[in-house]
Amino acid sequence: MIERLASPRPVCDVPDRLLAVRAAEGDEDSFAVLVQRHSRSLLALARSLLGNAQDAEDAVQDAFVSAWRRLPEYRHSAEFRTWMYRITVNRCLTMRRRRPPPLPLDAVAEPAAGDAWSQPAGCAEQEAVTAALSRALAELDAGQRVCWVLRELQGLSYKEIAHVTHTGEQTVRGRLFRARRSLQEAMGPWR
Q1: pLDDT band at 4; cut points 50, 70, 90
Q2: What is the pTM of this model?
Q3: Contact 37, 11 (CB under 8 A)
Q4: Is 116 exposed, middle or buried (0-12, 13-18, 19+ CB in 10 A)?
């Protein structure tokens, strides 16, 4: 579905709010523009939370299907983007609860020759740093990890994160502080 709706179309200058209203009235083209605008950032968010591209695509597709069904309920109290982040985060957290633990990073195939990190020393160091960061992120509780990903990787404001996570800005600030402190401690040897 995402591929069909996110296919190259000219992205118009119509605001998300108006497109959401039109989509709620059944305008599939307006919804397709919203999908095109937001699918890339939602996929990046889902990949960060789930650690798997296929699961991320499934989560985002489910989020868009859910959004399409729930558009008449959308009250525009938040930006469409923030509303979609909330739906996607909730879908990712549900998927994480239902799936078995992820494979360790050492089970992932080695990078192809010719990559920037194809030199043995650089490759080994990059893999070690990536493994350490992945372990550190996995050790964060779900709330801290979601807040950290939304802030550091997606660039959302504290207010937007609070809306996505159904918490207050102070809770977001506290979770981010604890997540950053934990990651700083875990990554200390790599400085």
Answers
A1: very low
A2: 0.63
A3: yes
A4: exposed
Residues 112 and 180: their CA atoms lie apart, in Å, by 32
Q: Helix, strand, coil: what percent of the chain each, to 5?
A: 75, 0, 25
Residue 43's nearest CA partner among 31, 30, 20, 59 is 59
Q: Which amino acid is at 67?
A: A
Rounded mean pLDDT, 17-28 = 89
Distance CA 126, CA 124 (A): 6
Q: In the structure encoding, which two tokens stand for residue 151, read together?
A: 């802030």
The pair of structure tokens assigned to 70 is: 């729930």
**What is the rounded distance in angstroms from the CA atom of residue 32 to the CA atom of residue 19?**
9
For the chain, the C-alpha Rg in angstroms (whole number) is: 18
Phi and psi at residue 127, to the nearest 5°:
-65, -40
Secondary element (H or E) of residue 157: none
The 10s digit of each residue's pLDDT in 88-138 is: 999 998 888 876 665 565 655 655 555 555 566 667 777 777 777 878 888
Residues 23 and 37: their CA atoms lie apart, in Å, by 14
Q: Which helix (H) or strand (E) holds 109?
A: none
Query: In 3D, which of 157, 143, 148, 146 has the Cα closest to residue 184?
Result: 148
Which of these, 63, 65, 69, lies nearest to 86 by C-alpha position?
63
Q: CA dihedral defined by 75, 79, 82, 88, rounded to 10 degrees?
A: 50
